[in-house]
């Protein structure tokens, strides 16, 4: 038995694209939330700036987002 949605032309590809989008959004929000909370708990005055930079990095792509997190871990946790 197949689902009616999967019988549409292009439906499996659309579902895969939707899943990739949702996973990327979860990573973006989760990483931004973690960086903001970590910076706030350490008393960093620039917690909101680090959160915005993390969100922008992940919005551009996975590698720039991870690069922002690495920079935060090296520089922002002083």
From TrEMBL:
> TM segments?
14-36, 48-75
Q: Which UniProt keywords apply?
A: Membrane, Transmembrane, Transmembrane helix
Please tell me whether the keyword Transmembrane helix is annotated for this protein: yes
Protein name as annotated: Cardiolipin synthase N-terminal domain-containing protein
Organism from which the protein derives: Haloarcula limicola
